[in-house]
Amino acid sequence: MKILAEALILVFLCIFLGSEHRICHAFSSNYNARTKCLIEPEAAQDGGGIIANPDFTHGMDGWTVYGQGAMKEEISRNGNRFIVAYNRTQSLDSISQKVQLRRGLIYSFSAWIQINKGSERVAVVFKIPRTELIIGGRVLARKGCWSLLKGGIFANFTSHAGILFESKNTATEIWVDSVSLQPFTLEQWRAQQDKKIDKERKSKVRFKVTYGNGTAMDSAAVSIKQTRSEFPFGCGMNFHIIDSTDYQNWFASRFKYTTFTNQMKWYSNEPEQGQENYTVADTMVKFAQRNGISIRGHNILWDDPKYQPEWVKNLTSDELRKAAEKRVDSVVSRYSGQLIAWDVINENLHFSFFEDKLGKEASSKYFKRAYELDPGTTMFLNEFSTIEYSNDEDVDPISYMKKLDEILSYPGNQGILAGIGLEGHFGVGQPNLAYMRSVLDILSSTGLPIWLTEVDVVKEPNQVSN
């Protein structure tokens, strides 16, 4: 990744995007058990939206086979009708329906999915003429129960599109039921979001004002003043703040949360082996503390090979192990108890520098050591492209939860305060809010806090209005 200004917007995303789940700090190591899995699927959401025959009450009307496979109707013991795609030889061999998409609309998708054996990823794919295939969402489907695949697409075009289902294991039969594709204008999406916020975040409050002896006070005037915002909201901070009074005043008057852009990274703190320098970071920490600004520690280690200190890149495995252990102990001990979070192994779904050289349990071990040194601080798995781009399977919510489960299942890590860090590096145009919400619904099933940790948008002429 490019080293960016790393503007930091810290919000509870499940509220920001209207997701259905509250956030808390409980965690169970078996994430499969946390996702909804039903013996019989629920009815299609929104009545199926623009999907024809969404619950297959009329057999296979409106549906066709895509690719070289076949489809058949099945009926459960309880009389529920569903469709099975079978005899598949290509990953996209499945059932299909053509729909019309209109420019500027958000399309929220859902379907209940089951497979005939084991567990496999199943994706919904939108096939647009003269355009690459667009992944709309994924689910980890299993034999024996129905799982909800959620997602969607933002249409920056007007065109017909084919809805397909993908499983890379062609031996898998894909069972489908209760399919829905519901269009929303941006205004309708916002109204739906506001309605959920009102439901989750607002309630009636009754005041009872009394004298000291407990008797009611008549005609009492009560004034309420908001003293702070409820959601964490912050900005990235760089070293120029040390010498600029204007920067200091601007920052302290606006933000109560921050992450340093580079000043806590290994290559900044130890550019030459054995020559540690925390002078700049220490000064920035003191400024933040004087102004009541909470700090996220970014980062202890970075799994991208490009962003190791130059002297680290040619170390032997044994030398790297000792150097990395020293780094973890040094930076975490120095700021223990002073931060609200640590990004422990930054971007270790996309990259694997330490795992390749020190073994697949390297990340888990460093999470464990960091928490031992700073047990009151939340330890984050921080990644990019999880919410921004649906086509990156390496960091989709299924892969994210698998990695998180791997780390927290490591002996001694069960009690760690863990967090989900989503970077948020957005490209040009309207983000796919339907897909983003589905990702958050999946990740929130962990019960862990979800933070948008870095936010930036590619520059374009209409950036402000967009």
Text of the CATH class of the largest domain = Alpha Beta
The CA-CA distance between the termini, in Å, is: 24 Å
Q: Give the overall average pLDDT.
A: 90
Low-confidence stretches: 1-34
What is the helix tally? 10
By secondary-structure content and strand pairing, the structural class works out as: alpha/beta
Q: Which CATH architecture of the largest domain? A: Alpha-Beta Barrel
The gyration radius over C-alpha positions equals 25 Å
Tell me the helix content: 10-25%
Provide the β-strand percentage band.
Answer: 25-35%
How many individual β-strands?
Answer: 20
CATH superfamily of the largest domain: Glycosidases
What topology, given as strand order, has the largest sheet? Answer: 12-13-14-15-16-17-19
Shape: globular
Q: Would you list the SSEs in sequence order as H and E?
A: HEEEEEEEEEEEHEHEHHEHEHHEHEEHEE
CATH topology-level name of the largest domain: TIM Barrel
Number of domains: 2
Major pleated sheet? 7 strands, parallel
Observed structural traits:
466 residues, alpha/beta, 2 domains, 7-stranded parallel sheet, 6-stranded antiparallel sheet, GH, CenC_carb-bd
Detailed description of the structure:
The structure is a single chain. α3 (245-252) links the parallel β12 and β13. The protein has 10 helices and 20 strands. It has 466 residues and is an alpha/beta fold. It is globular and about 70 Å long. It has helices spanning 13-16, 186-201, 245-252, 266-269, 279-290, 317-335, 353-358, 362-373, 397-408, 433-444, and strands at residues 37-38, 64-66, 70-75, 81-86, 94-101, 106-115, 119-127, 134-142, 146-154, 159-166, 174-184, 234-237, 257-260, 294-302, 341-346, 378-383, 418-422, 425-426, 450-452, 456-457. Mean pLDDT is 90; it is low at 1-34. Helix content is 23%, strand content 26%. Strands 12-13-14-15-16-17-19 form a 7-stranded parallel β-sheet, with helices on one face. The protein has 2 domains: 13-32 and 230-457, Glycosidases (TIM Barrel), CATH 3.20.20.80; 36-183, Galactose-binding domain-like (Jelly Rolls), CATH 2.60.120. It starts with 12 loop residues before the first helix and ends in a 9-residue tail after the last strand.
